[in-house]
Specification:
Length: 98
């Protein structure tokens, strides 16, 4: 019989594995969509840009990251072109900092 700690540890490992799989799928979708004129949803944007949700929203508030387009009350999406520009700006800023 398993102890409570073992069950909790197994549950946490399964959650981590599922989260990693969702992140991988989002990155694959985003890579395919990034070269088109499609809209990217939040998981794809986070996977491509490589930041967490709070960092992205903070960047939008500060004017560093582009604001998305409100598709519905609870859905925001970003045009692929604006994400490509964000990646280019970020890469250029990193090169200048070196």
């Amino acid at each position: 019989m398993q102890t409570v700690q073992q069950v909790i540890a197994q549950t946490n490992e399964r959650r981590k594995a599922r989260a990693a799989e969702r992140y991988k799928q989002a990155a694959e979708r985003a890579a395919a969509l990034l070269n088109s004129d499609a809209f990217l949803r939040l998981p794809e944007v986070l996977a491509v840009v490589g930041v967490r949700k709070t960092t992205l929203w903070s960047g939008i508030k500060r004017g560093v990251s582009p604001a998305g387009v409100k598709v519905s009350d609870r859905c925001t999406a970003w045009p692929a072109g604006t994400i490509r520009e964000l990646i280019s700006r970020t890469a250029a800023a990193a090169k200048e900092a070196m």
